[in-house]
């Protein structure tokens, strides 16, 4: 059964599984947290220490929490799991349990941003989670006046100074009722391909670098055309990057379109970014562009965008347009480095949250701007 394509009706005739019985699990901050929801309300919750071998206590705690909620395993309609970033081992353990339960019960698994499980006030709040090495995992949470999370901006792993104004993230599964609308928009993951967003490479790399006194050389960035086999990895990055992500059908149609081209950026065998451009005659539009949060600010986005533009320049006389959120200064800076300049503004272009789009244009190579 492919539960990643769509959510089936909940058991008991409820059209929306997220209004049925929902198991929520997360372990981004180290301790594991559990909650059981029904009709959007918390029936029971728990916190489990995940140090050393204590992660073996997590699944028994899940069963105990379900029992306290009066919700046996076969009553579950959907599972929500914190996707990270955060503690590598704890996320891996909880992610594996979530995938196993979803596959075994034949129900959808939805991955939600772990940092969004932090209780914050309405409006925009930046939260931080200790990433060690004098760095923070940062995210900006957008809540409406009722406290519902309408968007999450994953800001990646940043130097400690950049998180000085953020509040400490204390994610807990019991905050999930505020994320149900976001979960509904994200939709189920592909169980065969999904992995948590660890936020950085495994701690083994840190050990190696400490022992050798130098950074571990990363594999070079390579760019190539996307294939259908890349869709699970592309979707995972898409869902971790945007509050209103494209679905699998949209990406599949793009790969099949004669006017669209999709390039992916890889290191070794790991897909870490993608860009989609649509060209009709002498004009092209960058439709979608994203880099895995753990690989941002490492030159991967520059390499991918440069390759996309190189291919367009080789055809000669192509003007390229794009839209970017007006508040996304990091993306705007990237585009400016590659010759894009603002030429207009589209009011209320984006949803969740509603925001203007900055329209940018890159003149043909050697042409007048």
Structure description:
It is a single chain. The model is unreliable at 1-6 (pLDDT under 50). The strands form three sheets. The protein has a seven-stranded mixed beta sheet, with helices on both faces. Helix content is 25%, strand content 33%. Helix 7 links the parallel strand 13 (283-291) and strand 14 (319-325). With 369 residues, it is an alpha+beta fold. The protein has helices at 58-69, 88-105, 180-186, 203-212, 231-241, 248-256, 300-315, 329-337; strands at residues 21-26, 32-38, 41-48, 78-82, 109-112, 123-132, 135-143, 149-159, 167-168, 221-225, 260-267, 270-280, 283-291, 319-325, 341-350, 355-362. The chain has two domains: 17-212, Nucleotidyltransferase, domain 5 (2-Layer Sandwich); 221-362, Gcn5-related N-acetyltransferase (GNAT) (Aminopeptidase), CATH 3.40.630.30.
The percentage helix is 10-25%
Structural class by secondary-structure content: alpha+beta
| SS strand fraction | 25-35%
Order of helices and strands: EEEHEHEEEEEHHEHHEEEHEHEE
Distance between the termini: 53 Å
- What is the CATH class designation of the largest domain? Alpha Beta
* Number of alpha- plus pi-helical segments: 8
User: How many strand elements?
Assistant: 16
If you average the pLDDT, what whole number results?
85
- Stretches with pLDDT under 50, minimum 5 residues: 1-6
CATH superfamily of the largest domain: ATPase, nucleotide binding domain
The biggest sheet amounts to:
7 strands, mixed
- Could you give the order of strands across the largest sheet? 10-11-12-13-14-16-15
Radius of gyration: 21 Å
Number of self-contained structural domains: 2
Instruction: Sum up the overall morphology in one term.
Output: globular
Q: Can you tell me the CATH architecture of the largest domain?
A: 2-Layer Sandwich
């Amino acid at each position: 059964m492919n539960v990643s394509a769509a959510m089936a009706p909940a058991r008991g005739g409820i059209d929306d599984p997220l209004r049925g019985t929902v198991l929520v699990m997360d372990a981004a901050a180290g301790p594991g947290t559990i909650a059981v929801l029904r009709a959007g309300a918390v029936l029971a919750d728990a916190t489990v220490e995940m140090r050393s071998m204590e992660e073996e206590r997590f699944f028994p705690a899940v069963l105990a929490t379900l029992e306290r909620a009066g919700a046996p395993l076969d009553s579950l309609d959907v599972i929500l799991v914190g996707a990270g970033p955060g503690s590598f081992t704890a996320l891996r353990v909880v992610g594996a349990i979530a995938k196993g339960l979803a596959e075994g019960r034949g129900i959808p698994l939805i991955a939600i941003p772990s940092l969004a499980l932090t209780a914050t006030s309405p409006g925009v709040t930046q939260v931080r989670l200790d990433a060690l090495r004098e760095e923070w995992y940062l995210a900006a949470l957008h809540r409406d006046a009722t406290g519902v999370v309408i968007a999450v901006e994953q800001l990646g792993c940043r130097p400690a100074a950049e998180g000085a104004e953020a509040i400490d993230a204390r994610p807990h599964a019991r905050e999930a009722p505020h994320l149900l609308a976001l979960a509904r928009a994200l939709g189920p993951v592909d169980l065969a391909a999904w992995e948590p967003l660890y936020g950085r490479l495994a701690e083994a790399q840190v050990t190696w670098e400490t022992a050798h006194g130098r950074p571990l050389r990363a594999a070079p960035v390579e760019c190539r055309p996307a294939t259908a086999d890349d869709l699970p990895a592309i979707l995972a990055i898409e869902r971790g990057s945007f509050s209103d992500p494209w679905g699998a059908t949209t990406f599949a149609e793009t790969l099949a379109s004669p006017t669209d081209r999709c390039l992916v950026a890889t290191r070794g065998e790991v897909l870490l970014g993608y860009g989609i451009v649509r060209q009709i005659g002498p004009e092209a539009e960058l439709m979608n562009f994203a880099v895995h949060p753990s690989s941002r600010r490492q030159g991967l986005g520059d390499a991918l965008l440069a390759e996309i533009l190189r291919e367009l320049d080789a055809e000669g006389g192509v003007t390229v347009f794009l839209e970017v959120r007006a508040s996304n200064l990091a993306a705007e800076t990237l585009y400016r480095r590659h010759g894009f300049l603002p030429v207009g503004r589209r009011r209320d272009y984006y949803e969740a949250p509603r925001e203007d789009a900055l329209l940018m244009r890159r003149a043909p190579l050697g042409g007048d701007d």
